[in-house]
Design a protein that fits this description.
The protein has a three-stranded antiparallel beta sheet, covered by helices on one side. By secondary structure, it is an alpha+beta fold. It is built from one helix and three strands, in the order βαββ. The radius of gyration is 14 Å and the shape is elongated. The longest helix has 17 residues. A hairpin with a 2-residue loop joins strand 2 and strand 3. Helices cover 29% and strands 44% of the residues.
Length: 59
């Protein structure tokens, strides 16, 4: 089973700051096992959908 996580990044007027924020986000999620699955942009907002295999929980 997969689990999903959506993250919204608000883009500003400074491209360098936006690049740094997106790089940090991708690196952080990658270390947690998340893979970017879908990205959409609407005006000044970028939505990134991440997915990963859900850990098996044996009870």
């Amino acid at each position: 089973m997969k689990e999903y996580q959506a993250v919204i990044v608000r883009l500003g007027k400074r491209v360098r700051d936006d690049e740094d924020a997106l790089t940090d986000l991708l690196n952080e999620r990658s270390r947690g096992g998340w893979t970017p699955t879908l990205m959409t942009q609407d005006s000044s907002r970028l939505t990134v959908l991440f997915s990963r295999e859900a850990p098996n929980v044996d009870g």
